[in-house]
Amino acid sequence: MGSSKKFWMGMMLGALAGGAVSLLEKSTRQAVKEDFSKVSSGVTYVVKNPNEFIEDLRETANKVRATVEQVTEDVAFITEKVEEIKDVPPQVTELVKDTKETLRKIAASGQTQKHIDETE
User: What is the rounded CA–CA span in Å between residue 39 and residue 90?
Assistant: First the structure.
C-alpha cells in the first residue's frame, strides 16, 4: 500500500515540476495568466449570480431534452418509412406476376390487340 502512495506522490511532484518548467517561457506564462483570469471571472460571475447560472443550466437542459425528443421522433418516422419500403417490393412482385399471368392467358387465348382494346 505504501508503494502506491509513493507512486501517486511522485506523479504529483512530477506534474508540478513539469508545470513549473513550462512556465519558464514567457508566452506560456502569459497564456496561463489569461486562462486563469477567464476562469476566475467566470467563477466570480457564477458566485455573484447563482440564479442566472441555474436558469442557464435549465434552459440548456431543456434544449437538449427537446433535441433528443425531436431526434427520437425523426428516427421513429424514418424507421416507419423503411418498414413501408420493405413491404413495397413484395407488392410490386405480386403485381408483375399477376400482369404476366394475365398477358400469358391473353396470348394463350389468341385474342388480338383490337379485341383487348374493346374489352377495356
Answer: 62
pTM of the predicted model as reported, rounded to 2 decimal places: 0.45
pLDDT in tens, the chain (120 residues): 578 999 999 999 999 999 999 989 999 999 999 999 999 999 999 899 999 999 999 999 999 999 999 999 999 999 898 888 877 777 777 888 888 888 888 888 765 555 555 555
Amino acid identity for residue 85 in this structure: I
Q: How far is CA 2 from CA 5, 6, 10, 15, in A?
A: 5, 6, 12, 20
Q: CA 77 to CA 93: how far, in whole Å?
A: 25
Amino acid at 34: E
Report residue 34 CA to chain centroid gap.
34
